[in-house]
Amino acid sequence: MKAFGLDPCSKKRVKNYSLGMKQKLGIIQATMEGQDIVILDEPFNALDADSNLYLHGLIKGLKNDGATVLLTSHNQADLDALCDTQYVVPTFEKYMPSAG
Questions:
Q1: Rounded alpha-carbon distances, angstroms, from residue 60 to 17, 35, 78
Q2: pTM of the predicted model, to two decimals?
Q3: Running along the chain, 100 residues long, what does each successive block of 10 average in pLDDT?
Q4: How far is CA 84 from the centre of its chain?
C-alpha cells in the first residue's frame, strides 16, 4: 500500500477517499494475493502521473511472474505499452426492440 501512496495505518474512512485513492485501493485488493488472473477495469482512471507509472510497473511485474492480466482502457498508449494481445469492442447502435 505504501508503494502506491496509501497508508495502511490510516484511520481515514474509505468513503472519504478521493476517486484516485479508491482506485488505488481497488488495484491493491485485486493484486495483493498473488492471483494467477487479474482483471482490472479502467485501472488508470483518476490516477496521478506517479501512480500511473507505478501501475505500469506493477502490471509488467505481474506478467513477468506469469499472471494473466485482463484490463480495459480508453487510453491506447497504456494498452500498447502493456498488452501482448488487444481486443477492440466495436461500437454498435443502441438496439431498440420494436414495440409491435
A1: 27, 14, 12
A2: 0.81
A3: 79 88 90 92 94 95 96 93 91 64
A4: 16
